[in-house]
Amino acid sequence: MVGTALLGTLLVSMLLAGGRIEAQSARASRRIAACRSADRLLESWWSDRTKFPRDDGGDVQGGEGLRWRTHRIENESAEEWGAEVVALEIVSVNAGGEGEEILATVEVMLPVENLENEDEKADGNDAD
User: What are the residue ranges spanned by the domains of the chain?
Assistant: First the structure.
């Protein structure tokens, strides 16, 4: 009788542990997908840093339920060097739009002077 109770307890413990492992594996897979999405976005934006999105967002192509957003981060040290820090976040939006989870964040330092030069050229005020 006691042996049966012990075997039953062992079986329930193993099933609960297996469920936790599956949930943890699913979360890890989601984070890996978010990191890959961040890498693809950064690769596409890096070719022209002046067009790197700041304070923007959108859906991740091919990333079901994933969205990206960027925002500037105040950083006095970067500003002293003529740069700014922009954070890219990949978030998972829950079904029904209720809540979100940040899965990956990357901070990038970008030169500010390129933006100013491009603005001047667009206005026709370049010194050339």
Answer: 2-123
